[in-house]
Amino acid sequence: MRRYREPRFLRSDGKPNFSTRIYELPSEIEKYISRPVITVTSTSPISYVIKKMSTTGKRRIIVTDSTMKLRGIITSTDIINYFCGGELFKIIRYRHKNNIYSAYNEPAESIMTKGVVKALFNEKIVSIIEKMIKYNVGGMPIVNEDDKVIGIITEKDILLEFSEKMPDNIYVKDLMKKDIEVVYPNTSIIEAAKIMLDTGYRRLPVVVNNKPIGVLAAMDIVRYLASGTPFKRAISGRIEEGLEINVSDIATTFAIKIDLTDTVKKAFEVMLENNVGLLIVEDEQKIKGIITERDIFYNLTLEI
Q: How confident is the model at residue 2, as a pLDDT?
């Protein structure tokens, strides 16, 4: 007599087992999702988190438990907040007494965002776009019914799918930011980080005489923090010594430019070709503004 077995996609309580690949894949948003997901656990030291960011180039690291259940998320902005004088720097000041070695070993859970904006794998793409705009996030984890992470979706993932539908009659001048923040080669990293934290900008043009010569990105600071150089500079062990550098020490030494009259569709193509999320808008070799991946996402996803 053959023994009856519950189907593999059902749990003992008769509910679908969302951890199975069979149930996860059929989804409207499947084509948008990035996999595999870069994750750490809540007890991972921050040194491990920034190393993951630096080696993978991912600005968002998802925090899970050992079963891949979502626990939080850490972004490049959180790293800058922690190391470069933001609200999270209080942890370094009071718990670690500004000791660089101790600060790097702080667990990830201390700086992660816990109330993560997330989406279920069976949500509609329109719902996900609405969440991104409402909560001002550039990416979110995709989870199953058990809150286990199965992927991540970002603005870039969505724009890649929408790129063929981008209209040809919307121009850079229509979407660019005119009131921008800039830094200079001799601006300190702490000062540049403060601008990023105050404004929410992850990338700042580096200018000399109003001419762009490079870009400082949040990920440039993360890569520096992951490089080991801060430890060499911190002779006394104090973290301030490790951060006594200027923008010119770590910023990208070139700026990708676009003209005022170019289409937004062309701007996105230039971003993809050069693997950048910001373009300098120029007119007569002078900086007039910037256009970012997020500017395009906010405007064109709603338009489409």
A: 37
pLDDT at 285: 73
Predicted confidence at residue 17, as pLDDT, reads: 45
Give the CATH H-level superfamily of domain 27-161: CBS-domain (3.10.580.10)
Q: What is the DSSP letter of 42?
A: T
Cα–Cα dist 297/304, whole Å: 10
| Domain 165-303 classification at class level | alpha beta
Which of helix, strand or coil describes residue 90?
A: helix
Distance CA 208, CA 199 (A): 21
Kindly give the parts of the chain with pLDDT less than 70.
1-26, 303-304
**What does the pLDDT read at residue 267?**
95
Equal fold, 27-161 vs 165-303: yes
The secondary structure of 264-300 as a DSSP string is: HHHHHHHHHHHT-SEEEEEETTEEEEEEEHHHHHHHH
What is the reported pTM? 0.87
Q: What are 159's strand-pairing partners?
A: none
